[in-house]
Amino acid sequence: MALLEVEDLSVRFTLPGATLEAVAGVSFRLGRGECLGIVGESGAGKSVLGFSLVNLLAPPGHIASGRIRLEGRELTALSERRWRGIRGRRMAMVFQDPRATLNPVLTVGQQMRETLRAHRRLSRRLARKMVLHQLHQVGLDEPERQLERYPHQLSGGQCQRVVIAMALLLDPDVIIADEPTTALDVTTQAELVALLIALCRTHDLSLIVISHDLAVIQQLTQRVLVMYAGRVVESGPTREVINDPQHPYTQALIDALPQMYPPRAPLRPVPGSPPAPGVRPTGCAFHPRCRYRVAADDDLRRRCEGDPPALIPSSGSEVACHWVAQLIDHEMIHSAQVHDEPLD
């Protein structure tokens, strides 16, 4: 049984006169010790999905349908009181902006001890010992000195290490890291990626990494979900998805990477912009930006513009694309014709 199971999850924001769907029918499984990536442009629904997994959606956002199970236990119907027993203890979140996560008027030690004592009855001495241990685990220099410092006295990388240490304090099974390397310099990013990899191995920790950075996803994760306009458009083993992308959107994201081109060569950004939740196109939401739709025949173009594609198996991954589905159909027909040819 998977540690975490998400089935057909949809998240909506109910506003006066409109209901906006930010996440639509997302499903995945996460095994113990597994690292899963969620990638896509801003507005794809990645962070909303992450917040929904730990029930941190602020009104008017809410889970409209679907299931979230942790070791078989259904979480979506839990009361807020019961969620407090899950959040932090079983599932923890590392937020995108570590400075905004930390309270500016409390020292690092005060905040970390507060996190511990909210869930466990501990003496001040034992709480301090556990806090120092976790700061040492995340590689923070001079942890005893850092306990007495305020967030503004720390660098961005140090703040992120403190936030990760806070997430690890209660020894959770799952950590959701939302853009963990954003706004960090390249060296600090590399150190943080190495730290997360080491923590997953030593703690048998399951990790969900939300990012727009494919390089981070490639280094950290074994499997990846590619999201666009609230839906999963491709999923599969990270290596296969990045080396052999099946969906036109995944291909466009990889083609836009600067390292794909020689120095001074022009870049190839994804044309257009992602749709806002309230004005998403019918059919495949990516079709206004898709280069394959232009080359498609009239029947296929009508399908792209009118019918939302379902996820289908393709080259070891799953992809939601009518173009790929048509190619698979043609290959199956051709294979059957070759197989049926009489032998000489």
Word description of this protein:
- With 344 residues, this protein is α/β, with parallel strands linked by helices.
- Strands 6-7-8-3-9-10-12-11 form an 8-stranded mixed β-sheet, sandwiched between helices. It has a 4-stranded antiparallel β-sheet with strand order 2-1-4-5, covered by helices on one side.
- The chain contains 14 helices and 12 strands.
- The protein has helices at 46-53, 80-86, 98-101, 108-117, 124-137, 143-146, 156-168, 186-203, 214-220, 238-243, 248-255, 291-295, 298-306, 322-340; strands at residues 4-15, 18-30, 35-39, 61-70, 73-74, 91-94, 174-178, 206-211, 223-228, 231-237, 312-314, 317-319.
- Residues 332-344 have low confidence and may be disordered.
- The chain folds into 2 domains: 32-58 and 77-236, Rossmann fold (3-Layer(aba) Sandwich), CATH 3.40.50.300; 248-270 and 284-340, no CATH class.
- Keywords: ATP-binding, Cell membrane, Membrane, Nucleotide-binding, Transport.
- It catalyses: a dipeptide(out) + ATP + H2O = a dipeptide(in) + ADP + phosphate + H(+).
- GO terms for molecular function: ATP binding.
- Belongs to the ABC transporter superfamily.
- Residues 4-254 form the ABC transporter domain.
As for the number of domains, it is 2
Main beta-sheet strand count, sense and barrel state: 8 strands, mixed
What's the CATH superfamily of the largest domain, by name?
P-loop containing nucleotide triphosphate hydrolases
Shape: globular
What's the number of helices?
A: 14
Mean of all residue-level pLDDT scores: 90
| Low-pLDDT runs | 332-344
Catalytic activity: a dipeptide(out) + ATP + H2O = a dipeptide(in) + ADP + phosphate + H(+)
Main location: membrane
Membrane topology: Peripheral membrane protein
Domain ABC transporter: 4-254
